[in-house]
Design a protein that fits this description.
Layout: H1 11-21, H2 24-27, E1 32-37, E2 40-45, H3 60-79, E3 85-94, E4 103-112, E5 116-125, E6 131-141
Antiparallel strand pairs: 1-2, 2-4, 3-6, 4-5, 5-6
């Protein structure tokens, strides 16, 4: 399913994709689009007991899901349209725990080819700006 290429990409349009295109459990995470540029999106993941493990730390599964979701939106800003795609590879390194604050997820397209898109994601504390997780990704365009 594609969108009209004449319709500009906006924060509202990207936020709408979170509601329209992703599974209910991703929607339940409460991700919010903070900003975007060509090939880049920044999301905010609110701190939540539902996404935390022992000691109030944001769980790795939530970080990986948020990273994957942010990258899909970054690809949309690069292509200018919503296009079917699938994650081929997601390599994640957890640098330090995140607790007591929201997470900021910034996804950037490194290279977009005809069939594959490569990207990088940084997750940091929204309050302190310290990086807590880095990921690299590959997506197949369908």
């Amino acid at each position: 399913m594609t969108q009209n290429p004449e319709t500009p990409i906006t924060i509202e349009r990207l936020q709408g994709l979170l509601s329209d295109w992703f599974a209910p459990w991703i929607q339940a995470m409460g991700l919010r689009v903070e900003s975007f540029a060509d090939g880049e999106v920044t999301l905010r993941l609110p701190q939540s007991d539902q996404l935390s493990r022992v000691g109030g730390m944001l769980c790795g599964q939530a970080m990986m899901s948020a990273a994957d979701t942010a990258m899909v939106l970054a690809i949309v800003t690069q292509l200018g349209t919503r296009r079917p795609m699938t994650t081929v590879q997601l390599n994640t390194s957890f640098l330090k725990p995140l607790s007591g604050q929201d997470a900021r997820i910034t996804a950037r397209v490194v290279r977009a080819g005809k069939n594959l898109v490569f990207g990088e994601i940084d997750i940091s504390g929204a309050s302190d700006g310290k990086s807590v997780c880095r990921a690299s990704t590959t997506y197949a365009l369908l």
